[in-house]
Design the sequence.
């Protein structure tokens, strides 16, 4: 039988075929091959006499990511906030680079707009070139616009714990009944409420995948990028990278660099260039953790 992995939790994979969802284990050979099914996979599976299932084969993937462990993604939806908790732009930039490198779309949701906050993130990202939406899971601001962008696509919600990923999914799809919980005000961060990667089918080929909030960031997803390819993953650099004085300019501190000029003129935000330099250094020195 063929189905989709719709949830993965504690070594089990929940596979939806034509009928019910079957709780499956993966065949041992996957482990031997250092391969694991992930949410988003299309798989061949068999159902045993006791009603449990076993995944026999993972069908070819369009793409695959480690953290969150998902595959066949069209869009990364990064949920951020200027209030509770405040999102570090460097995290946004790292995920957007991974999305771009894998030819996935990237949407930035600045959530919790109903809470008083400064406008730092919108100032940085409004002209970068990807979709930026201000949302609130309380007032429903931005929810119709978000629904429109996600239509017909497989979309992964990522971002820090407590930022409102599951809350937004409940706004988009009330049947999801995704668990949410208050953040810790003492630590100003979420409590890692969502433990499983789980997908929700909104109909019309729209799939939303909820994921556990980041606690750490897996650089192995970035380390396959060659340093010289990094600039191409910053879409706000695209208009400038051909205009540098030197063909081999890496846009760090070279004279006649069009990217640096655009930064100095305010056309590229300085935090974006700082993120670029940090990532470039990291790739150059082959850092394994960050
Ligand atoms: N005021 C306000 N609170 C929100 C909004 N979105 C989420 N929250 C609250 O923020 C807290 C965390 O929301 P969750 O949806 O659980 O966050 P999450 O990103 O799924 O967190 P993890 O599952 O831990 O990764 C809850 O108390 C929500 O009610 C929003 O737009 N405005
Ligand atoms: Mg959650
Ligand atoms: Zn340059």
Sequence:
């Amino acid at each position: 039988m063929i189905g989709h992995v719709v949830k993965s939790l504690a070594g089990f994979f929940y596979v939806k075929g034509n009928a019910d969802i079957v709780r499956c284990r993966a065949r041992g050979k996957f482990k031997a091959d250092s391969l694991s099914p992930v949410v988003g996979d299309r798989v061949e599976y068999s159902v045993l006499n006791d009603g449990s299932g076993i995944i026999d084969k993972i069908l070819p993937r369009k793409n695959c990511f480690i953290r969150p462990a998902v595959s066949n993604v069209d869009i990364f939806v990064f949920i951020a906030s200027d209030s509770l908790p405040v999102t570090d732009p460097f995290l946004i930039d790292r995920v957007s680079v991974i999305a771009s490198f894998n030819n996935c779309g990237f949407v930035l949701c600045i959530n919790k707009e109903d809470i008083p906050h400064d406008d730092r993130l919108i100032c940085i990202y409004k002209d970068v070139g990807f979709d930026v939406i201000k949302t609130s899971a309380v007032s429903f601001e931005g929810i119709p616009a978000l629904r429109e962008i996600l239509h017909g696509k497989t979309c992964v919600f990522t971002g820090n714990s407590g930022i409102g990923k599951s809350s937004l999914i409940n706004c988009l799809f009330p049947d999801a009944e995704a668990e949410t919980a208050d953040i810790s005000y003492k630590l100003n961060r979420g409590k890692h409420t969502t433990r499983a990667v789980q997908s929700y089918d909104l109909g019309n080929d729209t799939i939303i995948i909820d994921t556990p909030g980041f606690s750490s960031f897996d650089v192995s997803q970035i380390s396959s990028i060659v340093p010289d390819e990094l600039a191409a993953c910053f879409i706000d650099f695209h208009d400038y990278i051909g205009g540098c004085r030197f063909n081999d300019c890496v846009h760090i501190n070279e004279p006649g660099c069009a990217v640096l000029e655009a930064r100095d003129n305010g056309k590229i935000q300085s935090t974006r260039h700082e993120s670029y330099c940090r990532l470039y250094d990291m790739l150059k020195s082959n850092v394994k953790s960050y």
In short: Helices lie at 28-32, 89-101, 120-125, 143-150, 165-172, 258-264, 270-284. Residues 223-284 form a domain with the Ribonucleotide Reductase Protein R1; domain 1 fold (CATH 1.10.40.50). The longest helix spans residues 270-284. The longest strand covers residues 2-9.
